[in-house]
């Protein structure tokens, strides 16, 4: 059996990345509805089957993050999703948070919940075949935001989640997402991202989380999507790497970015531009959701005749991101 450190390294090495297919029932239902598919449990299952049976996915994907519902479903051939992934050499992960809820005393800010009963759920998820987990906290940039209250509440929950996962035998993916919503500048995003990461690693240390057995899943440092000044790819890459270098301990095996609403191509370009910008102690890879599966969902639209084309669309994004990781290596 692999140690947690080995699992963490497997997730981020050999040029591969992580696919986030852990949309909650509500989010997945809206995504299906947006392409004209009825949001039933069966349609969510079929869509996830399309993803995990994509040919050669394991060449570029090391792990797939699943939702609780998917972990309990079966493929058409009767296998569970973790069994099917194990057969192709991909690790199964599980989103264990129960969502971001309004934070008392902090209007317009959220705290991610899910700690109650988490020790028991971690045990159950391991028995169902998961080897790693994910918890996402969100931070909004705005006038006076994020507040210290929201930052401290969220990093505390992230650290307690990570500790419980390591205690129970799952590698925690720790996801602090500074949202792209708003008209803020690249510099503002960098300042908030730095502050959040600094606070996060202080709290992870306090909770005795082993940095060598976790993965960080941060946002890239970008300007707000409503900003009229959108930075060049090279600026995003440099600002992101600078923020990470100032805050992320060198023993963390890897940083796996979320895409956060960037287009698939832009997210891939940013990832490519970061490779070998500086000598960095951690692997830099992807843990995209929308930027990996968006084109496939848009192609499929619930039409069985488009199954192969949709898998091809996913495969193309996965291959492009693996290629971006390889940029300027060696
Ligand atoms: C795939 O979506 C994940 C779950 O979202 P909800 O709990 O809101 O349904 C989400 O955490 C995702 O893993 C990250 O946001 C990264 O996805 P993107 O699309 O930003 O790369």
Q: What bound compounds does this protein have?
A: 2-O-methyl-1,6-di-O-phosphono-D-mannitol
> What is the element string, with H for helices and E for strands?
HEHHEHHEEEHEHEHEHEHEHH
Strand order within the widest sheet? Answer: 1-2-3-6-7-8-9-10
Task: Please give the CATH architecture.
Answer: Alpha-Beta Barrel
The structural class is: alpha/beta
What is the CATH superfamily? Aldolase class I
Overall tally of domains: 1
Find the count of extended strands (DSSP E, 2+ residues). Answer: 10
Q: What is the radius of gyration computed over CA atoms, rounded to a whole number of angstroms?
A: 19 Å
| Integer average pLDDT | 97
Measured between the Cα atoms of the first and last residue, the distance is 32 Å
Helix content: 40-55%
Main sheet specs: 8 strands, parallel
Query: Residue ranges: pLDDT <50 for 5 or more in a row?
Result: none
CATH top level? Alpha Beta
Could you please say which CATH topology applies here? TIM Barrel
Helices, by number, come to: 12
Strand proportion: 5-15%
CA-based shape: globular
Protein name: Probable fructose-bisphosphate aldolase class 1
EC number: 4.1.2.13
Family: Belongs to the class I fructose-bisphosphate aldolase family.
Pfam families: Glycolytic
